[in-house]
Amino acid sequence: MMWAALSVLSGAFDAVAFASMKKLSKLNTRLILILRHSVALPFLLLGFVFYEIPKVSADFYIVTFVNLAVFLFAMYLLVKSLKTSDLSMSIPMLNLTPTFLLITSYIMIGEAPSLQGLIGIIVTIIGAYVLNLRYVRGSFFDPFKMIFRKKEIFYMVIVAFLFSITSNLFKMGVQLSNPAFFVFVSYLFSSVILSLLFFREFKQKELIFKNAKWILVMGISTALMEMLIAVAVNFAIIPYIITLKRTSVIFSVVLGFFLFKEKNFRHAIAGSAIMFSGAALIILS
Q1: Is 12 strand, coil or helix?
Q2: Three-state DSSP class for 211?
Q3: What mean pLDDT value characterizes the chain?
Q4: Which one-letter DSSP state was computed for residue 152?
Q5: How many Cβ atoms sit within 10 Å of the Cβ of residue 66?
Q6: Averaged over 137-162, what is the pLDDT?
Q7: Contact, 223 vs 40, CB < 8 A?
Q8: CA–CA separation, 241 and 24 (whole Å)
Q9: Is residue 232 a contact partner of residue 188, using CB atoms and an 8 Å limit?
Q10: DSSP states of 226-285 as a string?
């Protein structure tokens, strides 16, 4: 079950990266994206201590660029959501990714979970409902309506769907090369592209130096998260891997409470715990 441990640990670093990005909310959204990829890049080089540079086909670069385009758009929406929403409210929406993966993984790479995995998905949705109980005023559907009433929450639902696509592309890229090479090349291309497109954002130099600590934390945690999940995808199907990675929700709720003094912690942690139970059912199927 090494892959399960790697997935959970990846989720923990993912939560730290999200918290760091929220700490950097005074920076421009595009600048945060540039820094996230650029600062992570040198730490990703450590992956080559364990893996060699492989020979790759044209398919590898096609998968890499398609993944890059979808991923960057998803990250742009994610950063915009984090700027205006609580971690305990927005990040748990990413637990919808396994639901979308039931369809996208089957279509893209022919992977499908068992019946128990489907039950786990239902439990995850129940957890999402509990998470939003504070918004119930009378109608059973009030929490679900909040997805469309609050654009930052709606953004995260879109991000969850886009991540279901990039998760499959991620596995395809790793299988066409190796974990270290795919992740490093992806971040190298994204850093160059983002820097060229938004080079004017570097005018916020004073804010960059002022927030250097959180920028470094964001880069290191992002690099560790990517490498751990890249290794894990070789040992289990994507719906299972990503569901366990979504335990980042639990870590995000806790970080939101302690770092940002976010309210409604009890509803958030209860809903997240139920979501995690759904993830456990999937993983044990």
Answers
A1: helix
A2: coil
A3: 84
A4: H
A5: 15
A6: 74
A7: yes
A8: 29
A9: no
A10: HHHHHHHTTTS-HHHHHHHHTTHHHHHHHHHHHHH--S-HHHHHHHHHHHHHHHHHHHT-
Count other Cβ atoms within 10 Å, centred on residue 49: 7
Task: Give the residue-averaged pLDDT of 201-223.
Answer: 89
Q: What SS3 state is found at 18? A: helix
Write b or e for each residue in 222-250: b if 16 or more Cβ atoms lie within 10 A of its Cβ, otherwise e: bbbbbbbbbbbbeebbbbbbbbbbbbbbb
Confidence (pTM): 0.82
Alpha helices in 45-150 (DSSP H): 58-84, 87-90, 97-109, 115-131, 142-149
What ranges do the domains of the chain cover?
2-283
Identify the burial level of 1 via C-beta atoms within 10 angstroms of its C-beta, where 0-12 means exposed, 13-18 middle and 19 or more buried: exposed
Residue 118 has a pLDDT of 77
Phi, psi of 52 (to 5 degrees): -90, 165
Residue 124: partners with Cβ closer than 8 Å, 6 or more residues away: 95, 96, 98, 99, 243, 274, 275, 278, 279
- From residue 66, give the alpha-carbon distance in Å to each of 73, 82, 104, 187, 204: 11, 25, 15, 13, 30
Neighbours of 270 (CB within 10 A): 15
Which tokens go with 251?
A: 């870590």
Nearest-angstrom CA–CA distance, 19 and 39 = 16
Give the start-end residues of each E strand in the chain: none
For residue range 90-141, what is the model confidence (pLDDT) as tens digits? Answer: 666 777 788 898 899 999 999 988 888 778 777 876 776 676 565 555 565 6
